[in-house]
Design goal:
By secondary structure, the chain is α+β, with helices and mostly antiparallel strands. 39% of the residues lie in helices and 31% in strands. The chain has a single domain, classed as Dynein light chain 2a, cytoplasmic (Beta-Lactamase, 2-Layer Sandwich), CATH 3.30.450. It has three helices and five strands. Strands 2-1-5-4-3 form a five-stranded antiparallel beta sheet, sandwiched between helices.
Amino acid sequence: MKKLDLDTLIEETGVDSALVFNEDGILIKSHYLDFDGNIAAMAGVLLTMCKELVADLKFGNSHELILHADKGLFFVRKLEKDEYLALITKNASKLGLIHLKLQSVL
């Protein structure tokens, strides 16, 4: 994996904020986000639940988590080993650009 620069990723995708955390929900780094430790912890819980759901459904390994709400998008992708990237935006139309950019970065 190439070195991940959160500022550049935020600028090129137009998202509002980003964070990197481990599967235990421990924050590694974040940019432009209040309560980043709490969000990392909650994302860790969500990922654990999703992994169990995927296992029960026998879908193999999960790669992304996308929460699309009325007023925004919370996107999580596994980086490597035990690290995850979360991107947060109030503009859900950014999802295609996020996927496109992450293909060239990760």
